[in-house]
Specification:
Blueprint lengths: L3 H5 L2 E4 L10 H6 L2 E5 L20 E2 L7 H10 L1 H16 L4 H18 L7 H16 L5 E3 L5 E3 L4
Parallel strand pairs: 1-2, 2-3
Antiparallel strand pairs: 4-5
Length: 158
């Protein structure tokens, strides 16, 4: 029987939370690795709660009692493992867009300043920032390019 790493041409990796988010999760998800982990309980900018079991990662019981069974299953079903790797790679591509990340950072900062009482909520400001973030996030990646000064600009269609 083929080993799971040979069948996938990817390295299976276990991601564990401790007293906080699993710090290795982002690199496991970003590389050609198959992520095995219990469902996440902490959430960061990576939106771990959006990760779906058996779609983006292989779910494990919190005590890892099913680890051997899961690995055996994936060794026998390499196509399923490859599907999970492809889905998690697609999820990670959402974070590869610098302009969208900057827009989202503005939204997070604005919300933090409002919730911490540092500024008063202003629906117009929220609407403006949200509209800019939504516009950037909906632009196809191929239509974004860096201008000579390093900022992003939308390519004009000729």
């Amino acid at each position: 029987m083929k080993r799971i790493s040979c069948a996938l041409r990817a390295c299976p990796a276990i991601s564990l939370e401790g007293n906080d988010v699993a710090t290795n999760l982002k690199w496991i998800m970003s590389l050609n690795s198959l992520c095995l982990m219990p469902p996440p309980t902490y959430e960061t900018w990576f939106a771990e709660k959006q990760l779906e079991p058996n779609v983006h990662y292989v779910p494990l019981q919190p005590d890892f009692a099913d680890l051997a069974e899961r690995v055996r299953h994936l060794e026998q079903h390499p196509a399923e493992a490859e599907r999970i790797v492809a889905a998690k790679n697609a999820y990670c591509r959402n974070f590869a867009d610098e302009r969208a990340e900057q827009a989202i950072c503005l939204l997070v900062l604005y919300k933090y300043f409002v919730l911490s009482g540092q500024i008063k909520p202003d629906p117009e400001v929220w609407r403006y920032i949200s509209a800019k973030a939504l516009f950037v996030c909906q632009m196809p990646l191929r239509s974004r390019s860096r201008s000579a000064n390093g900022s992003f600009a939308r390519r004009s269609r000729s």
